[in-house]
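pasting for the record
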Amino acid sequence: MSLDPQDAEDVELVRAALQSPAQVKPKRGTGHAVALLAVSLLLFWAQQQSIAGQTGTWIAALVIVLAVHEGGHWLAMRAFGYS
């Protein structure tokens, strides 16, 4: 489908689309993120202990590395104006 800038109907469709409110996902609180993180860590910990027998120190180090890595993504998003 292509829009014709000379067609009044197409112009109105574009205007209506630009004026309509954007569909925004509802914001979840920090508690939701913390709960999701806790469940993920618990499942990861259980998997590592049962399959590989990894120590808590190794798992803690991995979590710290992942947190720093993801923090870099967050900083880059902020630097480029994303929220």
